[in-house]
Write a structure and sequence with these properties.
Elements (H helix, E strand, L loop, with lengths): L5 H47 L4 E4 L3 H12 L4 E2 L8 H11 L2 H4 L9 H15 L2 H6 L13 E13 L5 E7 L17 E9 L7 E15 L2 E15 L10
Parallel strand pairs: 2-3, 5-7
Antiparallel strand pairs: 1-7, 3-4, 3-6, 4-5, 6-7
Length: 251
Amino acid sequence: MSKVTAKDKRQAAINAKRKPLKTVLLLLLFLVAGSVFARLVQLYWPSIKHQFTTSEALYQTSTPKLQALFSQEIEQKSVLRLSWQDLLPEQEEATLRQYQSGNAASELSPAQIGTVQSITNQLLLSIQASSDENYKSALHSTNIVQTVLGKAISISGFIVPIEVNEDRTLQSFFVVPYYGACIHFPPPPPNQIIFVQLPDGFAHHNLADAFTLTGILEQGMFEDPLGTSAYTLNVYDIKAYHGQPDDFRAH
């Protein structure tokens, strides 16, 4: 029978102590990896799903000219998929991104989020934003991106009713990047709001639902007590969208 030396006993004791530590480290690793994966899914899955799935149109134009144009555009696969940041001039996008995209929070580790450091960073950013003239100007900007005008595009967003028909269908509305804009929260900049007018009316509207609208994007100022838009969309069709349309701001 082999002897168990004092050295062997010490090594066994060290190994016994290391086992719980390894288990804890593995659990922490899985938690961090799971958190990162969940965040990536939340950010990118709606866009990926949109590319590979089709849904039935909840509205389609009855205008023959628009119908003919879009059957050709769809056949040629030339409809341009836009994100909300695509509607911002380059300099304004950079300014808004500095204060609204959540960059300060993204630089913190998961353990730091919600801590004094995190809150302090956000307060300092807010103070800086309040004195930044470029930022204040971007919040009310009507500047548009010329290269997307006149193009067949699709964009996803939430609906803000403006004019309602007697049958409760929507005759006109704003499309905005995030839920609650213009109603529960201040309106986004005019170049982040799209005005839509539908003579036929849209019956499937719900403030909490997001939609994908396809049509011809044009420049056009429309002012309402709820907000001001710098773009208009001649809508070809409207489909349901599942996910967060806003790819730009932190929510």
